[in-house]
Amino acid sequence: MAVYERGRNKREYIHGLRDGFPIGLGYLAVSFSLGITAKYAGFSVTQGFWLSLLNVASAGEYAGIAQVSAGATLLETALVILVTNARYLLMSASLSQHVAADMKAYHRFFISFGVTDELFGIGIAHPGYLCPAYMYGAFTTSIPLWAIGTPLGIIAGNLLPELLVRTLSVAIFGMFLAIIIPPARRDLAIRVCVIVSFFASYFWNMAPFLKDLSAGTKTIILTVVIAAVASVVRPVEDEEAAE
Amino acid sequence: MNIYAYILVMAAVSYLLRVLPLTLIRRPIKNRFIRSFLYYVPYVTLAVMTFPAMVNEAASPLSGIIALIAGILLAWIGANMFTVAISCCGIVFILELILTHLS
């Protein structure tokens, strides 16, 4: 696996381009709606571009934008990103089990940049050891679309009618549902976690004192508590954690 | 505070989360609690962020709750991310047009 023949790399790259494109279209739509949210938080078009290019994270960027709106400290913002993007730690850990042991360090650095729910998904689904050329192909047709979606949303947010703008802001939640519901269907423990999280989040917003804390703090506390309780009550089997 | 400072902090944390395991872990994680915790974290975080925010931030609570239920059903039967996201938007848009028309 250490030595690739040239033809194979090219084939893998083109295969990646093809698999990445539909993901890129979805990214463009969601990133666009993120731009509308970012506009209200005071992001300029250029800032929106850098935000999405450097983060490539739907939930993380959404949470980060909320932190900017709230005037949160940088430390709290870092903690919120740590929690909302913690799944990438898991995915990266999972990927570490799927790459050839002798894969070059610079490939590991570049591949890491594009560990998102979808790109991780096709990387893991691709047969055999993870091929860097395949991942780079998928990045090429998806990440640039994510990066331009947000600045486009910031520009268009000023031009579109208000109803359409408020409609599009729901897209990000639709994306979250598409990530959490299929595993919740498959695994009773995740299903219970999702339902408990919904209720806990709902009642938190009504509880005295708690409701005055920032949304980021709420996300951190509820995530740590609920995930820790779930881990004690129902620790995962070996094959689940490898998914 | 400068928005670029936020962007850089966010980017740094995001990248560290992605790069550290892939470069440092060369064998399977053994601790069962850590594996379980990492397994549950993404779903709990996203669920906490979705409800009730989705209902509160939609154009009206009624369209928000219907879009939420529709989104759950669509994702349950296996619709992809793009379809779920766009359908939720479509539902809010149509309901709001109807509600505005009625009032």
Written overview of the protein:
The complex is a heterodimer of chains A (243) and B (103). Chain A is built from 13 helices and no strands. With 243 residues, chain A is mostly helical. Chain A folds into two domains: 163 residues, no CATH class; 57 residues. Chain A is globular, with a radius of gyration of 19 Å. Chain B has five helices and no strands. In chain B, helix 4 packs antiparallel against helix 5. The interface between A and B is large, with 103 and 76 residues.
Summarize the structure.
The complex is a heterodimer of chains A (243) and B (103). Chain A contains 13 helices and no strands.
What is the number of independent domains of chain A? 2
Largest interface: A-B, 103 and 76 residues
Which stretches of chain B are low in confidence, meaning pLDDT under 50 for 5 or more residues running? none
Class from helix and strand fractions of chain A: mainly alpha
